Amino acid sequence: MVTSATAPAVFDLEARLDLYRVQLTLRKFEARAYDLFLENLVKGTSHLSLGQEAIAAGVAAAMRPDDWTFATYRGHAHTLARGVPMTPVMAELLGRTNGLMAGKGGSMHLTSVEHGVMGSYAIIGAHLPIACGAAWSAQYRGTDQVAVCFFGDGSVNIGAFHEALNFAAIWKLPVVFICENNLWMEYTRTSEVTAVANPAADRASAYGLESIIVDGNDAEAVYAVASAAIERARAGEGPSMIEATTYRHGGHSRADPGKYRPDSEVAEWLAKDPIPRYRAFLLEVGATEEQLVAIEEDVTAAVERAVDEAKAGDVPGEEYLMKDLWADGGSSWRN
Amino acid sequence: MVTSATAPAVFDLEARLDLYRVQLTLRKFEARAYDLFLENLVKGTSHLSLGQEAIAAGVAAAMRPDDWTFATYRGHAHTLARGVPMTPVMAELLGRTNGLMAGKGGSMHLTSVEHGVMGSYAIIGAHLPIACGAAWSAQYRGTDQVAVCFFGDGSVNIGAFHEALNFAAIWKLPVVFICENNLWMEYTRTSEVTAVANPAADRASAYGLESIIVDGNDAEAVYAVASAAIERARAGEGPSMIEATTYRHGGHSRADPGKYRPDSEVAEWLAKDPIPRYRAFLLEVGATEEQLVAIEEDVTAAVERAVDEAKAGDVPGEEYLMKDLWADGGSSWRN
Amino acid sequence: MAQLTYREAIARGIAQEMQRDQSVVMIGEDIGAAGGVFKGTVGLFDEFGPLRVRDTPISEQAILGAAMGAAMTGLRPIAEIMFADFFAVCWDIVANEIAKSRYMTNGQVSFPLVIRSGNGGGLRFGAQHSQSVENWAMMVPGLKVVVPSNAVDVIGLMAASVRDNDPVIFLEEKALYASKMDVPDGEIVDELGKASVLRQGADATMVALGNMVPRSMAAAEKLAEEGIDCTVVDLRSLVPLDVTTVLREVGSTGHLFTVEENPRLLGWGAELASIVAEEAFYDLDGPIVRITTPHIPLPAADALEDMAIPSVGRIVESVSKAMNA
Amino acid sequence: MAQLTYREAIARGIAQEMQRDQSVVMIGEDIGAAGGVFKGTVGLFDEFGPLRVRDTPISEQAILGAAMGAAMTGLRPIAEIMFADFFAVCWDIVANEIAKSRYMTNGQVSFPLVIRSGNGGGLRFGAQHSQSVENWAMMVPGLKVVVPSNAVDVIGLMAASVRDNDPVIFLEEKALYASKMDVPDGEIVDELGKASVLRQGADATMVALGNMVPRSMAAAEKLAEEGIDCTVVDLRSLVPLDVTTVLREVGSTGHLFTVEENPRLLGWGAELASIVAEEAFYDLDGPIVRITTPHIPLPAADALEDMAIPSVGRIVESVSKAMNA
Ligand SMILES: Cc1ncc(C[n+]2csc(CCOP(=O)(O)OP(=O)(O)O)c2C)c(N)n1
Ligand SMILES: Cc1ncc(C[n+]2csc(CCOP(=O)(O)OP(=O)(O)O)c2C)c(N)n1
Ligand SMILES: [Mg+2]
Ligand SMILES: [Mg+2]
Question: To test ligand 2's pocket by mutation, which of B156, B162, B185, B189 has the most ligand atoms within 8 angstroms of CB?
Answer without folding.
Answer: B185
